[in-house]
Amino acid sequence: MAKESFGVVRSVNISVAKGTVKQPVPKIVLFDRGVEGDAHSGAWHRMVSLLGVESYEKFSIEAGRSFKYGDFAENITTEGLLLYETAPFDRLQIGDALLEVTQIGKKCHGKGCAIFNEVGNCVMPKEGIFARVLQGGNVAAGDPITYIPKVFKVNVITLSDRASRGEYDDLSGPELVRLLTEFFTSNGWKADIVRHIIPDDAIRLEHMLSDARQGQIDLVMTTGGTGIGPRDISPDVARRMIDKEIPGIMEHIRQKFGQQKPQALVSRSICGTMDQTLLFVLPGSVRAVQEYMEEISKSLRHLFFMLKGIDLH
Asked: Under 8 Å CB-to-CB from 236, ≥6 apart: which residues?
């Protein structure tokens, strides 16, 4: 999907009781709990449901019959956007209303779904999406939709006196960029990753982390300076900047790799949050970056959802 593309609302639909199809209405009003008058509104991440005409057309051919808008319990029927190719945290602007995508598809209700009982399948669990309301407003058929993809802002900071002076090439920083690119791509996300090399300088690192917090950088990862040498200062600076530490991830990594290599237990790596910024402090070797990222990647997606206040449990 293009960096910014446009679609149109074909129908808006509500249901006053759960477990029923939604009925088209002239307009809906979005507010901070979803759609006014709709049974599914509430303080959760699936405030508003959307499904594309494109999905209707495919499923109609498969089912051998036509369906009317709202049959799949979507609040907003769209055209011109492949909704199922969006990703969580992407945004949809419809007039004054602003939606943030929170979930792609859902668990099928199976025999609890009227469409499933009739056809033996349903399109909403596969190609429908859900969103929460960031800004309210009126939405009606014919309204244009602007698709705004989320681009994660990421800083990778290598701490090394010698690499910063050009005495040798930084290897761990590029490897960290490669692994992060792989992570974001595999999750269908876009990321703008900026790499820095600085000396083992506490004041400079503190300024960079402060700038990242104020600049609403989504993720900062440092590499280097986690030992106990006189110039190893990255965990100490990070701990001063962190609002909430997340000790379990680094404890697990030290325990896992420390069983094979006792020197891994010397690492003082930490991670936590700086307001809306995730911060990870990693060791400075390529091997360590690979080992740490192998474990961090398992929980990083979940951490982004938690930090944004989206509970998928």
From this structure: 202
d(CA 122, CA 119): 8
Whole-number CA gyration radius for the chain: 23
Convert the pLDDT of each residue in 136-185 to its tens digit: 999 999 999 999 999 999 999 999 999 999 999 999 999 999 999 999 99
Helices 202-214 and 234-241, interaxial angle, to 10°?
40
| Exposure of 260 in the CB half-sphere (CA atoms within 13 A) | 4
How many CB atoms neighbour CB 66 within 10 A? Answer: 11
Give the residue from 248, 235, 174, 180 showing the smallest Cα distance to 209: 235
Query: Where are any strands of DSSP class E within 32-177?
Result: 34-35, 48-52, 76-79, 91-94, 97-104, 129-135, 137-140, 144-148, 151-159
Pairing status of strand 91-94 against strand 144-148: antiparallel
Residue written as tokens 């290599």?
261
Instruction: Judge contact between 224 and 195, C-beta under 8 A.
Output: no
H or E, element range at 173: helix 172-186
89 vs 148: CA distance, rounded Å: 9
Nearest to 275 by CA among 209, 196, 206: 209
- Distance between CA atoms of residues 244 and 185, nearest Å: 27
pLDDT band at 1 (very low <50, low <70, confident <90, very high): very low
